[in-house]
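pipeline/complex-builder :: batch 7 item 3
reading input block
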Amino acid sequence: MTTSSYLSRRLLLTTSVAAACTALEGLKFPAMAANGGKPLVGATLLSLQYPFLVSLDEAMKSEATKKGIELITLDPRQSVATELNQVEDLVTRKVDLVVMIPVDQRTSQNAARLVNKAGIPLVLVNTKFTDDFTAKGGTFVSYVGSDDTQAGQIEGQYLADQLPHGGAVIYLVGQYGGASTERRKAGFDAVVRTRPDLKIVTELQAHGSRAEAKTITENLLQRYRRGSIQALVAQNDEMAIGASSAIAAAGRLDEFKVLIGVDGSKAGLDAVKDGRMTATVFQDAIGQGTQAVDVASAILSKNTVPTEIIIPFKLVTKNNVASF
Amino acid sequence: MSALPLRDIFTRADLGDANRTRHVQHLLGDYGLAVVFIGCVLGLSITTDSFLTMDNVVNIVRQSSIIGFIAIGMTFVMITGGIDLSVGSVVGLSGVVAASLAPDNSKAFVLPLVVGLAVGPAVGFVNAALIVRAGILPFLATLAVMAATRGMALVYTNGQPVSDLSPAFDWLGSGTLGPVPVPIILFVIVAVIADHALQRTRFGRHVYAVGGNPESARIVGIPVRGILLSVYLIAGALAAFAGIVLTARVDGADPLAGTGYELNAIAAVVIGGTSLFGGVGSIRGTVLGVLLLGVVQNGLDLLNVSSYYQETIQGLILVIAVLLNRWKSD
């Protein structure tokens, strides 16, 4: 290509953009008029690949409609960099409040500080920052979420109750270093430690993925022959379902007295209903999403709100699954 | 009554139509990308009240700069007819290496920058060795290196993110020089140097020649192997630089950072008119491609478009750009 064609192309581009900019400067509407006077709330929601967060997103949207809030929800796809970009965009757009489900409890603090700096109120949902956030001057108005330690405790207690004479247990975790992984593990370990007859024979990361859990479990079933394992505990439903399908394919579902996950996602509840899982720990996505918007609405109408709203986990078994 | 036989009239009419069609196609091919870009800018300026603000434009360019560095390096590689899939992993590895050398309570700046940056050419050298020495296809060689490099980033950090870095180092990603964010300044500098190198130097002409026809390039005495080595070193270095700026921007490094960035960079380069078969391409086109993707991403966010649709729309834009490029006049 010739230089002159480059030059003319570039010239065309620059002049057109410049012309467009000047022409449009006059066309802009003030923010409130464009929103019809509704308050504008922006949310970044970790990753909309997870059924749990999709339900939470839907609950937020329907509650926002009820409360007369215009809500923008964004999907950072589990990338701190994308999350930072999106928060920048929200701040630029001058939203009235930001809701974050942080991607990472440490590195996402950078994005939160941007919100602080712009003087926009911040509500955290589902995942808290590490304590040094507030120590370094970061602020958030309210946290809405569940305590993952409790989910681990419920799993541990269920395991202990179901295996009164002890047994061998496979434990599938999400990702080490992740806040929910570490807390669920801490809660679970605390209960299991009191029962030396419960042996965790294998603990592996399956990164919360159904496919990865299935592969891992297929391999583990080769190692542990029939009769040598009594329970499989997974840190979420997706992994429990993946593990269960591997166990079912090997025709060994009857060996497992306990096959439990966490979340109570639709797929998880279905699996409890038809016996592919023995139990799940229900994390209330709809409760968290609804509460998040309620708190946002209260903050925007200058009401005082609690700094922490904890929505409890609940054990779901075949006996009570119908009510979820 | 015309004296021409009917057959001739038809032939001429056909020819005229064909010429006109080709003319329109060339216009679209040559200016299409600019037209699409301006169309997006105009459309978003009208439909959202926050798109055409200084803050937002700054956001777009700053956010685009990361993929921008990678895409500029990728342009060199793709003009030679190669491809570098390892760049996303280099972002991850250089990020964690630099981050580990820039702890919060230090004044570290030069050391993390230099060592983090060195990761890039090191990986680039391995790519080039596999391609030039071992004769492995660039796609396969860099695919293997992509996996190995990602693995190294995970091993180096034991899978954990590294956070809280020295303020001096963070300046590279979060600081400003006057009113202008540092990543934007760095992006402009890198783009200008790369454009100059490609358009105005003998090295640049050699890069095009190797991509156009490596055999004749070798016959006229161009050091083909040397040129191939340099483009992979450049791609690696710029990917490492992207990793450093990204790490400084988010004040932390994740061994999985940059996953999939190679595909974004390739998309930007292709949208910018570089041919996958080599010999054709430009830094200016790539920069426009990067900015177009940035504008579209930002615009879709501002318009509150669900992320599921966003990816579909980005795919469509890539297809349109490739079709337009096919009609370029040369």
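note: Chain A touches chain B at residues 1, 5-6, 9-10, 12-13, 16-17, 20-21, 24-25, 27-31, 34, 48, 72-75, 77, 79-81, 84-86, 88-89, 92-94, 104, 106-107, 109-110, 132, 175-177 (CB under 8 Å).
queue -> next item
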